[in-house]
Here is the input.
Amino acid sequence: MPQLEQFRERVESASKSHQYSSYLHVKQAVFDMLDRMSQEGDAPSDYWSAEVKGIEYLLDASPLLVQTLRSHCYHLTGIQDYDYRGHHSLRMPHFQSKYEALAALDSWGLFVPEDPRLGGFGHELDAGLTNVDTLKFYEVLIGLKMAGMIPSPKESESSPERVLEIGGGWGGFAYQYKTLFPKTKYVIIDLPQTLLFSGTYLLSLFPEASSQFISSGEELANAASQDLPDFTFIPHYLTEELGQLNIDLAINMVSFQEMTTEQVSGYARVLRDGRCANLYSLNRERSRYNDQLTGVINVLSQHYRMDYQDLLPIQYTELVIPRKVFGPLELLRNLAIGNRRRAIGQLRSPLLNLMNGQLPRKKAPISIHAYRHAFGRLS
Ligand SMILES: C[S@@+](CC[C@H](N)C(=O)[O-])C[C@H]1O[C@@H](n2cnc3c(N)ncnc32)[C@H](O)[C@@H]1O
Here is the structure.
């Protein structure tokens, strides 16, 4: 058969797929939201107003594009399938060691690999397909467990019933969460254009799941008075209505940092007033280019009792964990137990530094541009 005809057949078959019909369904819902948004006039931050222009073409996606939706998610989290192709496998050991460092903190089995459907990509570790987003989500799941906000997957029945993700991006964290805790009613609030990604992704990967897309305050009030489906998608301009949903746990990652002070404060206030007990954040205090925000923890602390949570000594964007710096007690201990080789090893790099004229450095204060895990409880 000629190439063109073969290609037409592929497109024809993709146009009849569940993924593409999910996309068309979500697209209609997004246009309903955009109609409402133009009446409500609630604009995203300056940064996101520019970003949504870059993803407008997704409103006109072909069936084949939908089948490789993950290749277009770099607009949201900056990672690209190109970096995970065979010729980049040199970096695979770094992914493996970062995965192992996280797995050493996880005695509960919280790792969920990237799903290969819709063009999912990553390095093929023994644990499964892994990219920077996969590890970021893993880190947050471990943080949530350490903060006592989620149970282990073995006790998934006792998972918070209603979980809200603010700024859910392409839906990758929701996918992991719902895989571990299938009974959870998962709610995403995001810009309508971004819901096109998460809606299509999640409806495609969970074809049996129930879902609803809300575009108005009346629809939200109606939804709040009934059982929630597996997934609920809400546009950002309905923030003020969220309290009615009785959310148990709210999560935000790499997103508050890009909003305005009013938006972050609005979310925290509405959640507090709606008695949402737990709030989890992985954010910079403020993104470098964002001059519309005072600071994430600064704002959240006005509504929640916030604490920081330390996981790894590196940022989620970094892969290589620096070697441990040993203190004098550990050195003495190794000398005392006759482990001279270790003690010499521990002394070597500080001594070399001194010989090179470098004085021991004081710990630098944590930058406001560093990503930090933090959790908040109602006061
Ligand atoms: C950098 S992406 C991060 C996505 C996801 N949290 C992750 O880490 O993979 C920032 C997210 O915040 C969303 N966002 C921006 N302004 C928002 C607002 N006012 N309300 C809700 N979400 C917003 C964007 O659409 C996007 O999904």
Remarks:
- The chain has a mean pLDDT of 92.
- The radius of gyration is 23 Å.
- The first strand starts at residue 123 and ends at 125.
